[in-house]
Specification:
It contains five helices and seven strands, in the order ββββαβαβααβα. It is an alpha/beta fold. The chain has a single domain, classed as Nucleotidyltransferase, domain 5. A three-stranded antiparallel sheet has the order 2-3-4. Strands 1-7 form a two-stranded parallel sheet. The protein is globular.
Length: 154
């Protein structure tokens, strides 16, 4: 996300002309319910550095994780080993491989969930400089989405 005033967790975004930005990393269930979220990196940091933290946060919430789907940004053999050590089957697309990994079919719940979170304008365009405030706002947005879903199901 674009970080208008920079601050903590804001770095040059390689896809946005070097403007300051922050990455939000999320773990969702197959139907799009967020189980873990991490605002841990500037926009120019590789995703592989956050995978272990995100996976362990999701595992703390879920009783069991059967399958892990991730795009090639999280490609590393030790991530696959981490998944297997917790009994989860990793489906992480490998870099330098042709497209068509099949993750597109499973990616839309993540993208939809991201769109719902980004309806919160303070997350869509960061004005806060302190990293813990951004993390708190992201967690609050995720909690409100899950609470709203639970209320509809009751």
């Amino acid at each position: 996300m674009r970080a208008k005033r920079a601050g903590e967790l804001a770095g040059p975004n390689p896809t946005d002309c070097g403007k300051k930005g922050t990455k939000y990393h999320v773990a969702v269930t197959g139907d799009g319910v967020r189980v873990a979220c991490v605002v841990a990196t500037t926009a120019n940091v590789n995703d592989t550095l956050v995978f272990e933290r995100l996976f362990l946060a999701a595992f703390a919430v879920m009783a069991r994780i059967a399958t892990v789907f991730a795009d090639k940004g999280y490609d590393a053999e030790h991530h696959r080993e981490l998944c297997r050590s917790f009994g989860a089957e990793p489906h992480i697309h490998k870099r330098r491989q042709p497209g068509g990994s099949g993750l597109g079919k499973r990616r839309w719940p993540v993208e939809r969930s991201n769109a719902w979170v980004l309806e919160n304008k303070r997350l869509a365009l960061r004005y806060d400089r302190l990293g813990f405030i951004v993390q708190s706002l992201l967690q609050t947005a995720c909690i409100l989405l899950v609470a709203g879903r639970l209320a509809r199901e009751l």
